[in-house]
Amino acid sequence: MSANLAVLERPASSALPAASPEVVVMKFGSSVLVDPADAPKVASDIYAEVRRGRRVVAVVSALAGETDRLLAEARALGLAHDNSLLPAYVVQGEERSAALVALACDRVGLSAATLTVRELGLVADGPCEHARPLSLDRAALDRALLKHEVVVVPGFGAVSPEGQVVLLGRGGSDLTALFLAAELELDSVQLVKDVDGLYDRDPNVHPDARRYDQASWAEAKALGGGLVQPDALDLAEARQLKVEVRNYLDGHRTVVGPVGAPPKPAPAHRRLRVAVAGCGVVGGGALARLLVDPRVEVVGVLVRDPSKPRDVPGASDAQLTPLLVSSPVALLEREPDLVLEALSEAKAGYDVIAAALSRGVDVATANKQAVSANPDGLLELADRNHARLLWSASVGGGVPMVEAVRAARDEAPVLAFEAVLNGTVNFMLARLGEGAAFDQALSEARAAGFAEEDPSSDLQGLDALAKVRLLSFEAFGVMPDDVDIQRDVLDPAALPPAGSRQLCRCELKDGKLVAAVRLVSGALDPLFAELKGEGNALKVVSQDGSVVRRRGRGAGRWATAESLLADLSDLAAARLSKAV
Fold it and tell me: What are phi and psi of 33, to 5 degrees?
C-alpha cells in the first residue's frame, strides 16, 4: 500500500458519515399499506430517501381493516369506547405494521429498527381515544437514529402522563408524524397516500375539478375532506410545518403550507411501460416486484431461452410466457418507456443498453461489466437521443455507493476511496475463515443467491475491478485501465489467511489513478473488519479531510433489485416532470 493511502487506514469511530445525516419523517397509511404484501413497496419508498443520504423515521398505520377488527374483538367482550384498556389492544395493529415494514427494509439491506408505542416516548393527554400530543422524550428515537438508517414507529398511539396507552383519534397517524417532525425540528413531513392530491372539488363527482400543487393550511382544512386529519393540520399551522401529501401511484405532491397557489387541471397519467433484460437472480427479483406494481405495465422480458423455467416469485407461467422474447430487437419493438437491464454478460448487456438509448429509451442497469466498458460513450449516446442512463445497481448491491461518491465529490475533490465491493467473495471468505471447504463455501454462496452459476468473474476479481472503474469514473471523471489495476484471485489452491477481505482501493496520485483489488488480512478499518457475510462498505476521503462511509447488504436478489427499482423510480419521476 502506498504512503498516500495510509489516510484510509485511520480507525473509524463509527460506520456513520462524519456529518450527521438529514432526517425525514414519512407516514404510510392503510391506503398504501393494505396488507403484508405491500410492505416491500413501502420499503422501496424508504430506500429512495436513504440513498439520498437521509435517515428515515417511518410512521405507519395498521393494515387496512385491522383497527376495526381489533375494536370489534375488544367490544365483543363488552368493552366500551371510553375503556382505558382498549387503546393498548388496538395499537397492536400499528405495531404489527411497523415490524412488517422493518423486516421488508432489512430484506433490501437497510439497517432498520422499530420502537413500540411505549418506547417511542410520545406523551399525550386527554380522552383515551382522542388524546393530544404534549411532549416527546427523544432519547430512544435519537439513539435508534444514530445506529440505524430507518426507524419504523407505530402511529395513532401515545402514552398518557400516567403511563397508559392512549389513541390520537381516527387518522391519528398523521398527527403522530407531524408531531415527531415538529419535535425533531424539521420544516416538513411526507404523508404517502393513494390519493391524487388536494382538489378544489371532489374529482369523483366533478370531472373538471382542479388539483393543487400548493395549498394553504386553511385551504386544506376547508377542502381536505379527510385527506389529512384536521387536528394534524392545526398542529402543522401552529408549528409552521409544511405537509407534503404525496400520491404513491404517480408521485404527485400537494404541498400544504403558509401560502397556496391556484389549482390546475390534473394531467392524465398512463402506466409506465417497462421491459426487463435478463431474468436471473436480480432481473427475476425486479420482475416479481414489477408484475404486482399498479404503476407499471411489463411489456417484455429478454431471455436467452424462453422455454427454460423461470424463478420469479409469485408469477405463473401464464403471466410470464407472453412476455418472453429472445432478441433485443423483439424486446424494443414492444415500445417500452424504460428498460431494466440485468444480464450477466458484458457484451450482451452493452448491446441492449446501446440499442435502447439509440431509440430514446431510458435505461437502468445492474451490469457493471457492460457500463464500465465505456461509460462516457453510453452517456453521450443517451444525451444525443434525449434519454437517461442510471447504473447505481451496478455497484454495492443495496448500498448507495454511486450516490455517496457523487455527494462527496460535490462537496470537495475526492482524494481516494476504499471499499469492499464483492458480496460473493467476502461471503466465501467469511465461510472459509469459519472452516468451510472452498466448494462448500461456493455452494452456499450460490444457494443464498450471491453467486451466479459461473462465479469466475467474482473469484478472479473481475467483478470488483469493474466496480472500481465505475466508482473511479464517479469520483475522478476518469477510470484506470484494467491492466493497471493490481488484482488478486481467490484460488482454492492458495487460500488467504482466515479473516481476510477483498479490499478495493483507488487514489489520485500525481495526476494518475492508482488502484488495486487485493485479498488482505490483518488490521483493517472497523468499517470493513466488522462486515458480515455478503456485506459491502465504502469509505471516501476528500481533499478537505472529510470522510464519508456507507455500508449494507452488497449482494443478493432483493438488495440489488431494490437499487435497480430505485433507479427506475428516478427515471419515472424525471419523465413525469417533463410531462407536467
Answer: -95, 70
Q: Is it the case that residue 416 has pLDDT exceeding 50?
A: yes
DSSP state of 304: S
Tell me the residue type at 5: L
* Type of residue found at 155: G
Tens-digit pLDDT profile for residues 248-259: 777 788 999 999
CA 182, CA 398: separation in Å to the nearest integer? 30
* Alpha carbons 356 and 348: distance in angstroms, whole number: 12
Tell me, what's the pLDDT at 577?
67
Q: Average pLDDT of the chain?
A: 90
What grid cell was written down for 397? 448491491
For residues 111 and 185, the answer to whether their CB atoms sit within 8 Å is no
Which phi and psi angles does 219 have, rounded to 5°?
A: -65, -40
Angle, helix 375-384 to helix 462-476, in steps of 10 degrees:
60
pLDDT score recorded for residue 511? 84
Name 523's Cβ contacts closer than 8 Å, sequence gap at least 6: 9, 529
Reported as a single tens digit per residue, the pLDDT across 100-146 is 999 999 998 899 999 999 999 999 999 999 999 999 999 999 999 99
Question: Is residue 213 packed enough to be buried (19+ CB in 10 Å), middle (13-18) or exposed (0-12)?
Answer: middle
Q: Distance (Å, rounded) from C-alpha 15 to C-alpha 145?
A: 13
Q: What is the pLDDT of residue 1?
A: 30
Helix, strand, coil shares of the chain, percent, nearest 5, are: 40, 25, 40
197: CB partners within 8 A, 6+ apart: 211, 212, 213, 245, 247, 252, 253, 254, 266
Instruction: Give the pLDDT of residue 9.
Output: 38
Q: Which helix (H) or strand (E) holds 380?
A: helix 375-384
- Between CA 119 and CA 387 the distance in angstroms is 48
- How remote is the C-alpha of 397 from its chain's centroid? 11
Residue found under cell 466496480: 467
DSSP annotation of 297 reads E
Q: What integer pLDDT is reported at residue 14 of this predicted model?
A: 33
Give the torsion sign (CA, 541, 526, 503, 8): positive
CB 342 within 8 A of CB 366: yes
Residue 118 CB burial class (10 angstroms; 0-12, 13-18, ≥19): middle
Contact 217, 259 (CB under 8 A): no
| C-alpha 73, offset from chain centre | 36
Using a pLDDT cut of 90, give the percent of the chain over it.
Answer: 72
> What is the 3-state secondary structure of 313-357?
CCCCHHHHHHHEECCHHHHHCCCCCEEEECCCCHHHHHHHHHHHH
DSSP sequence for 234-248: HHHHHHT-EEEEEET
Q: How would you list the strands of the sheet with 501-509, edge to edge?
A: 485-487, 512-520, 501-509, 414-420, 535-542, 547-553
Residue 169 corresponds to which cell in the numbers above? 383519534
pTM of the entire predicted model: 0.86
